[in-house]
Every structure is written in structure tokens, then in C-alpha cells.
Amino acid sequence: MDIRTRLISTAEQLFDRHGFTATGMDRLTQAAGISSRTLYKHVGSKNGLMAAVLNERDRRFHRLVSGDSVDALFGALETWFAEEGARGCLFLRAWGETGGNVQEIAEAMARHKDRLRQRIEGIVVVEIGRPDDELAEAILLLFEGATHAATYRGGAAVDGARRAARRLIEGARTQGLSS
Amino acid sequence: MDIRTRLISTAEQLFDRHGFTATGMDRLTQAAGISSRTLYKHVGSKNGLMAAVLNERDRRFHRLVSGDSVDALFGALETWFAEEGARGCLFLRAWGETGGNVQEIAEAMARHKDRLRQRIEGIVVVEIGRPDDELAEAILLLFEGATHAATYRGGAAVDGARRAARRLIEGARTQGLSS
DNA sequence: GCATGTGTAAAATGATCGTTTTACACTCTC
DNA sequence: GAGAGTGTAAAACGATCATTTTACACATGC
Q1: Up-side HSE of residue B66: CA atoms within 13 Å toward CB?
Q2: Cβ neighbours around A114 below 10 Å, total
Q3: How many domains, in total, are found in chain B?
Q4: How far is the alpha carbon of B167 from chain A, nearest alpha carbon, in Å?
């Protein structure tokens, strides 16, 4: 496995499990099996590593969430949590731990959330045949809610979000027919 | 103002704005205008301070969220964000930064989320005249979603959550009439 | 009038932080 | 076979971390 890939994926695990600030560079280099000199050659700084982790996670996330239905969307979330556990949105956590003051991290967060919103807008069009901002916003909120509520409610959160999304879609469909 | 109250409220602001781990004890004592000796006499440790902040925030939160309707619930959230800004759930953030390994913090988080769930179950009974676990779960998810999505979508997140909750309640009401 | 309690200021504790440096080994390629 | 590139190990950097200690000031109540 490529050295940079290994570094970023072990860093992602440690950051996710123990927090960003709480994870020191010694722990990172030791877990990745590389020297600190190599780490800094590759990512420049700890903030650079954090941003690289987030951008890689964003790619991975959108590879997984590639279906065209709400069932696929929340199914992907369920799979994600089953494999990696649920500890809240890593982008928001990074943003919060850095007080929103680190540009590369704030940008990675904003980019990720923009793409998520676009993904959901696409799903809405497939589900009800037309764009619907209010419905897309609701599904985004349910997705965000499930992501965080799953940390203390487990799989029930994802189930509940999927069911609520289905009901809202059903409502939007019949509303579209009657008007 | 009482010295302990002042300490906890300034600590809450600093933790919320800059993150828990990133906020050092020197900064805390300086901002609160007390010596480090006094701080440790009052809260024992940094983890103790974090737990005290969370428990005080929980009290304040439930004082604000005391209405009996979804409009009151999301109205309270709107007020909260307008006054203090939206940076995600401080309980989940504390839990995440400590890797879930600090007992007093994990307990404060669990207690807060339990109370929130009970609050919402009560609102559901008032709104539709009977308990409804699925509806309560959905509103909890919308609330959690709005709390976090407000960090990057602002007030639109709270609006969207309130509207979606209203639609789900309307659906549950007519369902109750037809069955 | 002397403990007791509660506060301050400031230094010291030892550990850990992110980052850089020094010195050295291996493998390519021209 | 010299030089460039990429890696390691390990020490050093100065700063900052959470916490404790020392020394002192000002109340309170018995």
C-alpha cells in the first residue's frame, strides 16, 4: 500500500476514534509506521493532514453514497456505520475542534456539505420527478440528524430517518398530483 | 456574580467557540479572572469543568425549551442560535473530543439526550393526542439535524426542520383519524 | 486574637505538543 | 559510480499542556 494512503487512512481512524487535537503526531507516525520527517514531507503540517483526511473521506463517502433513491441513501449510511461506527460528522468535528479558523479545514467541510446537498437534490428529482427545495432540505436534515443521533441511538436513528423521509416523499408526490 | 457561575459560563463560551482541547487552563483562568488554584478547588480537573459546563448547559437548555408544541421547540432553537451562534451540539462535541472515554462527560451527554427525547415525546402527545414513537424519533432527528446543519446553512436549517416536523405531524393526525 | 476558609499571584512540575534537524541507508537513473 | 530522491531513527526545538506547590492577603466567627 502506498505510504501516503496508509498515513491518511490510519490518521482518519485515529482522528475519528480519539479526536483530532487529542491525537498526537507521535501516535500517528507510530501507527502508520513512518518517520515524522516523512509525514511532514507528505502533508506539510497537522492541519494539512487533517484536511487531506477530510478530502479523502469525502471521496470515499460519495463513492458509497451513489444511489438514486432515499433507500439507497440511508442504506449507504447504515453500511457506513456498521463498518466504522457512528461518532458524528468528522467534517463538523474537525471544524469545531479548530474553532472554524483553519481555512483548508473549513473549506473541506463546506465542499463536503455542498456536495451532499447536491446529491440529495438529485435524489429528490428521481423520487418525485421534479426539484423540491423544501423536500431536499428536509432529507438533508434527516441525514444530518441520523449521522449524529446514531452516536447515542444506534441503528434506530437511521431507520427513523429513512421512514420519515419516505413519508415526506409520499406527501410531496400526492401533492404534485393534486395541484 | 458567583465565582463558580462566572467560571462555568466563561468556560462554556470558550469551549464552544474554540473547542475543548484547544482551550487551555491559562486561557480559562485569565478569562474568568480567577487563579488556577481556585479553579481546581471548584471543579477538580479539566474534565470536571467540562462536565460541569455540560450539566449547566443542559439545565439552561431545558429552561429555554419548555413549550408544548413543535413551533415552540424549533422557535427556542432559533432563539438559541440567534443569541449564541450555531456550532453543533456541545455535548456531542465534548464526547467526540474525549473519544467517549471520560465517564462524567459521556454520562452528561447521555442524560441530556435522554431528556431531549422525553421532551419531544411529550410534545408529540400534545400535538396529536397520543404517543407515537416513530413521530417522536423523526422530530428528534430533525432537531438534531437542524442543530448541526445550522452551522453551515444558518437559519434555513431550523426553518426546514420546523416545516418538515409540521408535515409529519399533519400526516400522523389524519392517519389517526382514518384508522 | 487566633484559627479557618477562601481567595490571589507566581513559580515549578513533568509530560507532551507540533515541528525541525542531524546523520545515515537504500534505490533508482544518467 | 556520482547524484538525486526517498525513506528511517533519534534527538532537539521551544512552546504549551494540566496540575501542584509555595507564599501571602483578607475576611469570618468562636
Answers
A1: 7
A2: 11
A3: 1
A4: 7
Using the CB atom, is residue A38 less than 7 Å from strand D?
Answer: yes
A96 CB within 8 Å of a chain B CB: yes
Q: Is the CB of B45 within 7 Å of strand D?
A: yes
Q: Average the pLDDT over A111-135 and give the result.
A: 97
Phi, psi of B99 (to 5 degrees): 65, 15
Q: Is residue A132 part of a domain?
A: yes
pLDDT along chain B (179 residues), means of 10: 92 97 96 95 96 98 94 97 97 98 97 98 97 98 98 97 98 73
Containing domain of residue A124, as a range?
Answer: 55-178
Q: In sequence order, what E strands does B53-160 have?
A: none
- Domain assignment present for B39: no
In a domain, B78, yes or no: yes
Q: How far is A147 from chain B (nearest CA, A)?
A: 8
A27, part of any domain: no
Give the residue-averaged pLDDT of A34-41: 94
Tell me the per-residue pLDDT of A16-31, one tens digit each, with 9 for 90 and over: 999 999 999 999 999 9
At A127, which CATH number?
1.10.357.10
Quick one: which residue's CA is nearest to D21's C1'? Answer: B37
Q: Does B157 touch chain A (CB under 8 A)?
A: yes
